[in-house]
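Researcher: Sequence of Preprotein translocase SecA follows. Predict its structure.
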Amino acid sequence: MSLCYCNSQKSFEDCCEPYLKGLEKAPTAEALMRSRYSAYATHQADYLVATTDVSQRALYPKEDILLWATSNQWQKLEVLKATATTVEFKAYYLDSNKKSHIHHEFSTFVQEDGIWYYVDGEYY
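Model: Prediction complete. Tokens:
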């Protein structure tokens, strides 16, 4: 069993994988955010586009998402605070020069027809 990339302490198969494979929909904003982190870690750009709110998709081209996902080594996710529609988190990663970085974001999500979508984020 390999632990999920999102640091939930669950197996990948029992955590984010069903969302990434389209077998299930993330039940909460936090679950969606965790699955999006796992998607970056596993280079699932199609999932990242599909889970971005339609109003924002033009701002996040698939090619840019894939480049960002593949040019970094995703180390760890830390969820700091979550509400019904927001998640504050830190994503730890190494860039292409193996330099350590922390992506600290306060993300906003919206649920439409029972499906959660990423809207935008404020970066620290």
